Amino acid sequence: MSNLTSEIEKAKIMAKQSEVLLRASYDPESKEDGDVLSYLAFTQIIELHTYLAKLLNTAKAKP
Questions:
Q1: How far apart are CA 25 and CA 4, in angstroms?
Q2: Per-domain residue ranges for the chain?
Q3: How far apart are CA 59 and CA 39, in angstroms?
């Protein structure tokens, strides 16, 4: 159970990082910075989606 809790905490951290990157991309210092921040946020969100899908499958598999 503690392993599942730590995996959920990791997902929460990933979600917060995604939020920070996305918010930063709204007010960049330059267009290039905004593009990079948007890209990083997008890839972080895809990673989070994949991680959560695996976590859900793991939780479903446990009796």
A1: 32
A2: 2-61
A3: 30
